[in-house]
Amino acid sequence: MASVTWTRKASRRRFNRMPAAPMYGRLPIVKMLLVTIALTVVISAVMVPINWNGQGASTAAPKIDHLLNVMIVLSSFVFSLVMVMLFYALWKFKAKPGDESDGEPIHGNTRLEIAWTLIPTIIVLFAGGYSWKVLDDIEESKPEGQYLTVAVFSQQFAWSFAYPGKDYAWSEGELHVPVNRQVQFKMHALDVIHSFWVPEWRIKKDNVPGITTTAIVTPDKVGTYQLVCTELCGFGHATMRAKVVVEPYGKWEKWVEGLDREAPKELMETVEVDSATNPPALGAGGA
Amino acid sequence: MVDAIKRPGWWRGLLGAIAFGAFGFGLVIALRAISDLPLYQTEQTGYPHIIVPAVTAPLGFLAGFGCFDYWLRWAAGMPTIPEDHSQHGAKSWKDYFRFNTDHKVIGVQYVVTTFIFFFIGGLMAMLIRAELAQPGTQIVEAATYNSLFSTHAVLMIFVFVIPVFAGLANYVLPLMIGAPDMAFPRLNALSFWMLPLAGLLFIGSFLAPGGAFDAGWTGYAPLSTGAPLGQSFFNLGVQFAGASSIATALNFLVTIITMRAPGMTFWRMPLLVWANLSTSLLVVAATPFIAGVQFMVLFDRALHTNFFQFAGGGDVISYQHIFWFYSHPAVYIMMLPGFGIISEVISTHARKPIFGYRLMALALIGIVVLSYSVWAHHMFVAGMFSWLRVPMMITTLLIAVPTGIKIFSWLGTLYFGKIHTYSTAMLFALAFIVTFTIGGISGVMLGMVPIDIHVSDTYFIVAHIHFVLFGGSVFTIFAGVYHWFPKMTGRMYDEKLGRVHFWGTLIGTWGTFVPMHWVGMDGMPRRVADYAEQFGNWNLMISAFAFMLGAVQLVFLYNMVVSWRYGPKAEANPWRANSIEWQVSSPPPIFNFDEIPRVVGGPYEFGIPGAKHAIMAGEGAEVPEGEKSVVGSTS
After folding, report:
1. Alpha-carbon distance B80 to B74, whole Å?
2. Are A130 and A207 within one domain?
3. Number of domains in chain B
């Protein structure tokens, strides 16, 4: 027993960190931090103004883009810190040619190790909390009656849409929605999984055979966009696109009235079945 | 000839494959005949007369090749052939083509085989980039394109990155812990020989009617359950690759836990050993899930079970849950051994102890634990229960913490060291820190649900996985191969060519994968043979860098092959490292050690006068006073 205690002590002495006495030289910590911050500012100043996600055309877009910008600044800081630490070390501690001696036998520094465990934890928890808030924001459902429901049907390799109103007007390969009104897409896949994505809306959701999934979007810019399938669905995947038109409400209403086809009955029946056996709609409780 | 067929080896293996294959085929046909069914079922997902032989023929090969001889004799009560060690060591190149139970031979077999698959998978990547250089369809049609990127991913993941780490560890790990071999040498050999069979099944699927599997390496149902025959080859190949890695992981666990040299306490194990311990814990618990889920898909296809067919009451999304419950830990299976390699290389070439050794080991364990709780971050837009997303986001972000600890500790290791950058291994290790940091940052961004909703299934994902798997794992593989090349071959490689390879790879990696982030965020989905005109210029640039990246790998190939044959002879310890594998000759003696070394200190005691990691046989066995109580205890 005694020897075990001794061993533990010995190993603690061995591993426990920088011995108190010798100083190995000072690091220009303040200068390194200043360079890190300067580099962070430069990288952020270059990257934040660029509109990475392209044009935005929904109320979710600016929120997601803003979150991205916050992450760009935080990430620039982390990246700059790593770069400054790495290149300072390479510049300062590079061995002279022919130098076969060893470095200083430093085994660690408890305070530093606690710091680089705790600070990243705080940063990622902040990022997580902020993301959660944005997620709740962009998926917040308007009370019943204040949003429009459009049914989406996807199949290899085409999109179809059914609109509310008399007998579910039906359009193929072309989606029209009114501007500045929340639309809840109730999505159904008829064969394999497809995914509904309009890059300008920043919203994406898989269409899954057998269940109904929901995407909530409030388009806020009139225009023509493209609906892209983003889940591999077979040889036609790359060309599985649809035209998306966002237009003023009156114009949209007229367009829907002008549609001369109805949604196939058997499809609308599956919709009912799907909805009955479904996980609770996305956005119902926020998270 | 008769003699050749009686002896275990290629002839008997071939015969076994034919016999077992014919048996499987005959069984299916006979059963169908007595059931009054048409003899050949050639609906899209059917083909039982091909699927069954595709299982039995590889097993027949393994049996004929001699993988089961010892066990079968023992099980049947026949006198076992006593181990005469004729299956140990390699005297000529021919011995690498035999059933060999020497961990060093198996290590080399692994590394060479996996690199062959790396180059085949790389050629597929070149074809993919050739097709994507311009919008529109030029080289391959869409269906073939889908097969190409699916097989590219599957070859790289299942028969390159995962097993090449097993190969490197196979060679150096027993030496590092002072063991004469792995705990189960015959199981070790069997694990290796299952691997080329898995690769052959993956590549062989190109011959199947309907082409190779084309549902992506993720093989999401119901696209995979309804896909042509090639998909079944994927389902089966994964079984062989999975069984191989589970058996290897068990082998590593038992070896590490029970076969450490006297004095090698857990806290004296090199970090590579810690890394493989953690990886093996992941493999044994997670890999059965992918084996299971691929069987379920195969049964849906061939036996019309209804696990994932919604029309029959199956649950489509449950495929993804089971799949990612393996495949997220799998990304750490592909990264943790690399972390171990980087620790060895950086400590040795900075001439300094690893900074915060214990926290480094604990961070590995932390990653193992956390990695089981993050899988659904691959499914933020998949239509699963929406409340599951936030907890999965939090755990995903938290896993950045232990990963960050590792990055900072490697950087800390450099400080007050004597950094040598003459070795290509060290260059790859340093570049790994930079590139992997980028991959980690994009990983954190992907972990955040709102950002993920936008970029999921776009080229941003392709960029991220290649930054972590190529800029991460493959850089560590190169670092490991260069670092232990002298030990494994007994020759030195050419550092000048190594530098050409390094800079070409670094520039190629960044040039290829950085712009992929941009086109992805801007709206280009992944897994498409064709794309909008607006992404044309970026894709042309990406392809140009990709070809450069591919070409420069030939420099690596040349360097390895020529140096192995003609390189200058390597000393035992060219990098002046401390760990035990460098204290024996290069290449090591056939049974590793004349006498098991005694471990008397930590593995990275650089700069401490008189400090020693291990006392080898024949060395003045002066155990420092006070260390005597430690020698002989193993925990």
Report:
1. 6
2. no
3. 2
